[in-house]
Amino acid sequence: MKKQPRSLWQRFAISLxxxxxxxxxxxxxxxxxxxxFSQGAIALxxxxxxxxxxxxxxxxxxxxxxxxxxxxxxxxxxxxxxxxYVKSLEIAAFSTLMLLVIGYPIAYGMARTPRxxxxxxxxxxxxxFWTSFLIRIYAWMNILQRDGPLNELLxxxxxxREPPVWLATDTAIYIGIVYSYLPFMVLxxxxxxxxxxxxxxxxxxxxxxPRWKTFWLVTLPLSSPGVLAGxxxxxxxxxxxxVIPDLLGGSRAPMIGQxxxxxxxxxxxxxxxxxxxxxxxxxxxxxxVVFQHQAMRGGERS
Amino acid sequence: xxxxxxxxxxxxxxxxxxxxxxxxxxxxxxxxxxxGSFMAVDRLSLDIHAGEFFALLxxxxxxxxxxxxxxxxxxxxxxxxxxxxxxxxAPVPPYRRPVNMMxxxxxxFPHLTVEANVAFGLKxxxxxxxxxxxxxxxxxxxxxLESLGTRKPNELSGGQRQRVALARCLxxxxxxxxxxxxxxxxxxxxxxxxxxxxxxxxxQLGLTFVIVTHDQSExxxxxxxxxxxxxxxxxxxxxxxxxxxxxxxRWVADFVGDINLFEGRVGDDRLSVEGTAAGRLRIAAPIGxxxxxxxxxxxxxxxxxxxxxxxxxxxxxxxGTIVExxxxxxxxxxxxxxxxxxxxKAAVANTDGNGGDSPQPADNVWLSFSPEAPIVLMR
Lengths: 302, 379
Hints:
The complex is a heterodimer. Chain A is mainly alpha-helical. Chain A has helices at residues 8-36, 57-65, 70-77, 79-112, 115-126, 133-144, 149-156, 170-195, 198-206, 211-222, 224-239, 243-248, 256-266, 270-301; strands spanning 39-40, 47-48. Chain A has a two-stranded antiparallel ribbon. The mean pLDDT of chain A is 90. Chain B contains 9 helices and 20 strands. Residues 1-19 of chain B have low confidence and may be disordered. The A-B interface holds A 197, 199-200, 202-210, 213, 217-218, 221-222, 301-302 and B 72-74, 93-96, 100-101, 103, 105, 107-111, 120-121, 124-125, 152, 154, 168-169, 172.
């Protein structure tokens, strides 16, 4: 591409998203980063040091000497945090896998239905969004209760003798997450599968490839951008998920979102909560950068 | 390679006549395919012989691509049979049919390299790695793409992509290669060049090609035989020169090339047609129909002479006024309005450059043609 001198208007238009990101992402992130290096205090704000510019050079000096890595050392020393991270990553990984296994056939089926019906199906997939997320999770609490509709159904069908306990278990968390995040997996998959050129499948058949093998050799590789998008869209928010484990899960091993909430609102320990959040961001940014890099390389090729 | 026209092609003998084997390679019997209430292919029968280059020619929507897809197995016929080498293909799924298709869109796998695209079909056969590599390399050399094996399809030009698609089919050594408008996506220069390469490849490999095209000059150049299709039916199946010189019907005459049609009745001597817009027309060969039968006299524009002066011979000549001149470089097409108001087209070769007394619009001219020129059509 040739570089052309940009007009004032173009510069303004380009700078808008950057300004947005600086104001609402970078600045808050830097504030949290700073708090993570501070110490808790019974004061307002509840941490020290606070930058005091009225004290001049000494104030700045005091500010920087007051910062420390203590909170990060705490994260390493207490296994609670480590367990919390591991559990979050584990739940995110397994539920993303489940979402992929459930979502792919749904998206594939949608892409193969007559075009007239596809718009209806897309609306149906998005229909749950019309109800508040919180209300839907409360509905699941009701469904999963000991004498709730799910157990009633299982009992009448004689699948179980005793009503099993669903609430406050990891199973309930998985049910809630898979239910809530399914549209985020289905829609990007549908978007790529719907664009898949039918003649490629015919060409594969023509060259001697049975249908199941065509799926592995042609359909799946060509839908990988959709798989990647769906996986990222699900995995990242699930790691930090707070509401679902808080309402459906047990209290023994909290997910990382719950831990942050506890530090912030329970212990009023902003610096530790910030440190937990910063480590989480680092954990998530690494795979995003790697995937994004791969996707960019793939994008250049196709 | 020297190929100038349909007539002087002694090297391309029709295999149907010289081949001692009477059984055709591909036999289509009473084949029908309906989409809703639309008959895409309508009780169509056709024999294609081994080693033949067969063209299916017709306007868009005539069912030629559907016929190809029926042979490949992507569509299932409502009636009729397709028999290849004496085997009914009806129960054979597309991936087991010994035919291959080159798609109009090429349908190259975008995630695979050129080599992997060409090797795809061979891998499905479970051939040893070494043999696959050898055959792929040979095929890429044949289509002159040996240096581009590691590229992806989107890094190739349209012409190169077309060759990859061709190589991917040819490497399977199909009993019949089906080509769906293989040259339609190329620009004119490349298309002309690629036509001859296709013919060369077909001859070198001794394969049977069935090509679908809407471009009559393409069909005329490449094919041993042409099947002209309209509304799901074969209107005529014959060698290119026969289709052009002796079309079976007005429709074929009109579709293949340009033609002037005069409606009339067979004269009593059967050597003339009376009552046409051009009066009484003399025909060299006796007409195979009873006197007074309504017929059409068809005359190709290039068989009509155009002159300012009245020709000495008064037969088959008519007066008119030039309405329009279409200059094509090598020839000019003159549209001449004759007495009854209809237009007659005459093609005149521009042999003497910008000659001084070439006819101009609004000139009164004479059109004439010899008794050998017209084709008499019954339907």
